């Protein structure tokens, strides 16, 4: 079989056979298909899409391209996970994993690096010195069993075909494809041996799905494909028309995560998303029978300090500092230049182009233009005001963290251009739009 014929078939709108998809996935995993041909097929899929059957076949093949974890039934709780489709300032994973683990679940979370304008969970946690974000599978399993959760990146063992495709999609403008997003997410989750999965499908200016129609289509694809593989999956559609929380970047988001887990500062929109996802995970996995009871349990995990303790143990178990919670600022990198971002004029923040904000972080060095770019983990924005807030020179739009004065000034211009200031506050909008389940997706 010639791979160029597979490319042509999808380019012309054809349906790929199981044999063709298997050929593609094997070539991804062993490197026999060159990157330019992988990129060509990814673009053809992005433009021509895939049927549900094609997507399911791609998902199963990528999941089977490496090791599949099988958690023995001697665990004291269910194995569950959450995955976000990506956004700006989305630090939910660092909060949710230890909270749900503190509630009695086991969370083997396999995360990715930044895609396009969105930040990556793995890049953020790499700002913790010593933290091994790609340990061997034996270490991963040991930490999950001992601590209750582990946040890592794809190893060479788990879904290696997706690992290569993921990196190529990031730099070829093919991130937004619903079939490719579905197969990428679910292949890793199936390989992780989960009992249940909750999806956080983002919608808005900072998401890959800009409209509710697109978000629902992705949620349906995820739920139906996962169900076909025997993985119980629900999806929440959540707002991504602005930063989630107060920070956007890498180390700056880890700082905010520690503040949340230690119950010293919990930004309301972030708190709403975290508790809703935790509650859905606890209900779907059977740990709690009602959303209200599950939310209360998740909240107690934070206020009691149990979730912070789990996070600290996870960091130490994966090579990070044992005193990370106590000396967070000492351990995390800090930018040499910090400047306020003044509003163009007094008024209310009416709208934000969140994608432009993400691109501003890339320009600061906090995200990638190319797959091999080295990141400035200290760069980003803090104290980002939420839509509807009053702004003036006394209350700036944010504080920029940059390597140089010139970088900071450029970021100030970029952020100001992304913000719309009005004379009156806009109407409020929900943080969580919908919850979708099998049969109701």
Question: What are its keywords?
Answer:
441 residues, Transferase, Pyrimidine Nucleoside Phosphorylase, Chain A, domain 3, 3 domains, four-stranded mixed β-sheet, globular, Aldehyde Oxidoreductase, domain 3, alpha/beta, 17 helices, 13 strands, 14% strand, four-stranded antiparallel β-sheet, Pyrimidine Nucleoside Phosphorylase, Chain A, domain 2
Characterization of the model:
The chain has 441 residues and is α/β, with parallel strands linked by helices. It folds into three domains: 46 residues, Up-down Bundle (Transferase, Pyrimidine Nucleoside Phosphorylase, Chain A, domain 3), CATH 1.20.970.10; 249 residues, Nucleoside phosphorylase/phosphoribosyltransferase catalytic domain (Pyrimidine Nucleoside Phosphorylase, Chain A, domain 2); 89 residues, Aldehyde Oxidoreductase, domain 3. The protein has 17 helices and 13 strands. Helix 12 crosses helix 13. The longest helix is centred in the middle third of the chain and has 17 residues.
